Structures are given as C-alpha cells and as structure tokens.
Amino acid sequence: MTATPAPPPPARFTAGRLLVLTAVAAVFGLFLAFGPDEAEVIARSAEWRMTVRQNLPGAIALLILAAIILVGLSLPVSLWLTVLAGFLFGAWVGAAVMSAASTAGAAVAFLVARYVFAGPVRRAALTRPRFAAALARIDRGVAAHGPYYIAVLRMTPVFPFWLVNLGLALTPIRLRMYVAVSWLAMLPVTAVLATAGAELAEITSFRDALSPRVLVTLALMPLVPVVLHLVARRLTPSVARTSQ
Asked: pTM of the predicted model, to two decimals?
C-alpha cells in the first residue's frame, strides 16, 4: 500500500472557519426547535407512503438531498433517515437510496470538519509535545492501515456515525479512500435499518408490532454492528503491533 501524503501545513482558526461552524450550529438548533412532531408523523404515515408511490422519483431525490444536507451538517439523524427510507420506499430501494445519500453526506461532513478543525488542531499540536506524539502515532497507523481503521470505526456501535465523520477528518486519510471504505462498511447496517423500516410500514395494528418477523428484524438493528465489530477485532492484534 502506498504511503498516505502528509497533511497540509496547519492553519489558523480564521473567520471563514468560524462562519462555517456557526452556520452548522445554527442549523442544528433550528432542527431541534422546529423539527417534525412525532405524533404527526405517525398519523400521516399512510398518506405519505401513498404520495411517495405517486411521485417516486421526486420523493427519492428529495430524501437524498435532505440526507446529504443533514448528515453533512453532522446532525445525528442517519439511523432514523435510513429507517424512514425503508418505511417509504421498501427495503431494497430504501437501502440503495440511503447507502448513496449517507455516504455522500459523510463526505460533506468530512470535508467541512477538515476545513474547520484540521488546521487548528495541527497548530495546537505544535506547542503540545504529548498531543503531537499522539497525532504522529495516529498518522503512522492511518498511513499503514487506513482502510482497516475506517472499517472498524464504522462497525463499532460505540462511535456515532457523525463522530466518526468528524474524527477521521482530523487524520491525513484521503477522501477517496474514506468514501469507498465507509460505503462498504456501512452497507450491512444500512440494509438492516431499511428492512426494519419496511417491516414497520406493514404494521396495521399494535399486535403486528409483536410479530416474530418484525421483532427479529428490529433486533438485528443493534446486533449487526456489534457482530461486525467482533469479526473485525480478530485482526486487531496484528494491526496494532505493526502500527507501533
């Protein structure tokens, strides 16, 4: 594997970076204050699915655009948007739509975080030897095993989707590698979440929610990333030794 190039020289926390950060915080606050009401969503779900079936291309385009914007702003909505996609479009279409949209949104979040935070973090390390040493170890590990680190972080349920986007932006990982490995590592979880949404769309009574098929699908939602992480951990000792 070719070595990853060193990150650009550290930059100051400029007014442009502050403006981007302020805009992200403002959109996040507006989303929390004026987001959709849960009762309204449940009451109008059947109407929404009917509208989606009548305007499928436009509905898909709208959800993709919304997902890219919301995920790109690091709002913690990826899980619920994937369930919504399965609920509206079905398991297969919903998984395909959100696989593309969440990956694109993750790329946007990565670029925004790298622009806003990477330079100041690197500059802060110049006057903090321990911090600089830690960053150097991370950079060496990323240079040697970048795809592995991305995949493990994506498969680990302890780390939220948005936090992984922001954290990896502080490393010298290439955008192309980040996008490709993130897309592949997120596919299993995306498929399970979309399937769970599709199963919820078939519920017509509270008794249906307790059916074995629905319960098994919902149970897979938290189990899939845990199982994937346990599989990935089998490679951890050898990778950790070569990164030191």
From this structure: 0.67
